[in-house]
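Might I ask for a little of your time on a matter of protein folding? What I wish to show you is a protein chain and, alongside it, a tokenised description of its three-dimensional fold. I should value your view on which stretches of the chain appear to form regular backbone elements. You will find the record immediately after this paragraph:
***
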Amino acid sequence: MCPAAEDVQAEIERIQTVLDDLAAEIGATESWTHPKARELDTISFHHWLREQSDNEEACRNIGIFIAGGMLTKPAHAFSALQAVLMAASAGPFSNLVDDTFILDRRVVGGMQSVSRTMARELGDDVVKLNEPVRFITWNDEGATVKSDGLEVTAKDVILAVPPNLYSRISYEPPMPRLQHQMHQHTSLGLVIKVHAVYETPFWREEGLSGTGFGAEELCQEVYDNTNHNDERGTLVSFVTDEKADEMFRLSTEDRKARILESISHYLGEKALEPVVYYESDFASEEWTRGAYAASYDLGGLHRYGPYQHDPVGPMRFACSDIAAEGYQHVDGAVRMGARVAEQILER
């Protein structure tokens, strides 16, 4: 992709500085307490960007990192406060666009190997797979948790799933009114994740990193995702929000052709001929139903944020979707797990 024009780049950097300053001022932990919280939470990120600049290209380029790249929703569908939280959680927005900060570490064998290793160490008597929780009966003393094949009684229950899945469980007594409302004001975005595997990482041979961003592209992001010690090359790319809607209206083959064409705009015609092509549709997965994490609708963050960590009887909530630092990332999930474990141990 051609680099941005000098005036566009300068404007991008200026807006980025404004976001960094706001993120530092408001912070990630309790953004809803800031005096500007309501003001920023009742205007969309799309309109906030246009208030900062009349340079449309600069606004779109800033928008892809939070709207397409992180929340996977159109910038008009979430608030400026939600965008500031996203920036502050990475400490600051600049880190979201720094490929040596947020994108420079990978787990050999993939992230699932971490979960599998932990499960193996805990043992089959502790970790029960393929047992989705259907029903929780609870009071202030504890709870009984039921799946199709198990029934467990415990003093504490941790719901470590995204907020959009809380309602997949039936509760007796029902969750309080506040939780019902809160959970209805959060949703996940939409993304198609694409892996294209090639006989070699040809872009490296041509002196290219394999990383690219394009506000006008169907695939607004592309990265070198080649596996450790693999002779083949793998590119990963993403199609998000309204662009994904458009792709799902096409046939499988037409969608593949359009996506590969977009990737080729970054890396050349060799990108059109992968030996393996695979799409992941997060929204169709039973236990995700979207990507990558839940965010509030306009006005929801300052209204419900103060209560999203509150326990309900013996039930506590721990997931990266409601993390402060590390929101939407593995780091946030680990922080939330540690936080809830400490609360239970203290009690």
